[in-house]
């Protein structure tokens, strides 16, 4: 039974939730209306993993792609695995994210299998001992994908708002400015994300673990300053692997970093030096690195001409923050809600 690209976990195709609490929410197609009280299916997280949420398809079907929406109305993360079966006796694990922190939409791919039953077992929730899932879809897709060690090796940038990536540490005028794809509109006041040197970092959380081998970023470059930094990746926010050490190098503008592929759902950028002041400023982040286009490189000139001398007057000398918790404000302002100014 094969309808390429069409979700078959629907009532139309005879699918039903046969295990789990609040079964009716999972396959109703509503991915907008959910909150703390309703709009999700759930199961208690227990050590022996006997609980779970199980879907029975209308008939045995070939699938290689599953999408699930983990409850994401706050910043929590979940861990889980997914198994498939024809008879509810022999189960084959097709996705194992039990050791990874994941949030929001999960786009999952695996070698095609015939199955009738799909079981999702939550193994961890960073907030409590219940696993909550808002939506479930499964299908066969003709889309090409690359898997290594059970993880997707992406070619497109997955550090985007559309892919449910988010900035979980770092200061910015607008949340997720780092990931909005805008590499042209930034100046002394906005369009960047930053952190105080010697304290904190800029941390991006991807929605799910990927096998990543490159990163590209744009350091704030409206004047002649240079920065130094290093980058680490993690799947659980506990163990970190350094993938770039540019602490001894003077770096400006666009940075492309390549390294041996690593499982990553968290990327931490730590600024260690800035020739102009005590703050590290980053305008854009992507992974994996997309082929640089010339229009990207020209954004530097655009930004510089826009700022002109006006920018120089605006920021004669950014005042150093009195403590690591206070933020740089525009000169003459006492407000602490602004991002660190370049």
TrEMBL record:
The gene is Btbd9. Residues 322-336 have a biased composition (Polar residues). GO terms for biological process: adult locomotory behavior; circadian behavior; modulation of chemical synaptic transmission. One of its GO terms (cellular component) is cytoplasm. Residues 291-342 are annotated as: Disordered. Residues 23-133, 174-280 form the F5/8 type C domain. This is BTBD9 protein.
């Amino acid at each position: 039974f094969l309808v390429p690209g069409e979700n078959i976990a629907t009532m139309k195709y005879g699918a039903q939730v046969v295990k789990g609490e609040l079964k009716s929410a999972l396959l109703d197609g509503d991915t907008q209306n959910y909150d703390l009280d309703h709009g999700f299916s759930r199961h208690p997280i227990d050590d022996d993993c006997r609980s779970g949420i199980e879907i029975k398809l209308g008939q045995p079907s070939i699938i290689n792609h599953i999408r699930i929406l983990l409850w994401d109305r706050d910043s929590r993360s979940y861990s889980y695995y997914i198994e498939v079966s024809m008879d509810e006796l022999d189960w084959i694990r097709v996705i194992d994210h039990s050791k990874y922190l994941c949030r929001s939409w999960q786009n999952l791919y695996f070698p095609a299998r015939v199955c009738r039953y799909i079981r999702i077992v939550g193994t961890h929730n960073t907030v409590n001992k219940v696993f909550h899932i808002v939506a479930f879809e499964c299908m066969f897709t003709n889309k090409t994908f690359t898997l290594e060690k059970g993880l997707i090796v992406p070619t497109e940038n997955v550090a985007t708002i559309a892919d449910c990536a988010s900035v979980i540490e770092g200061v910015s005028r607008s949340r997720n400015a780092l990931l909005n794809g805008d590499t042209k509109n930034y100046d002394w006041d906005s369009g960047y994300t930053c952190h105080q040197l010697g304290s904190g970092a800029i941390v991006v959380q991807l929605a799910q673990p990927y096998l990543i081998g490159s990163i590209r970023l744009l350091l704030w470059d409206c004047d002649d300053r240079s920065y130094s930094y290093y980058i680490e990746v993690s799947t659980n926010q506990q163990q970190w692997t350094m993938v770039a050490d540019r602490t001894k190098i003077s770096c400006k503008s666009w940075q492309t970093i390549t390294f041996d592929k690593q499982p990553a759902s968290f990327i931490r950028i730590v600024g260690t030096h800035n020739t102009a002041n005590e703050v590290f400023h980053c305008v854009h982040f992507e992974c994996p690195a997309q082929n640089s286009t010339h229009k990207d490189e020209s954004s530097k000139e655009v930004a510089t001409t826009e700022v002109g001398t006006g920018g120089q007057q605006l920021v004669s000398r950014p005042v150093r923050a009195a403590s690591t918790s206070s933020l740089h404000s525009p000169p003459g302002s006492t407000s602490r809600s602004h991002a660190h100014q370049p």
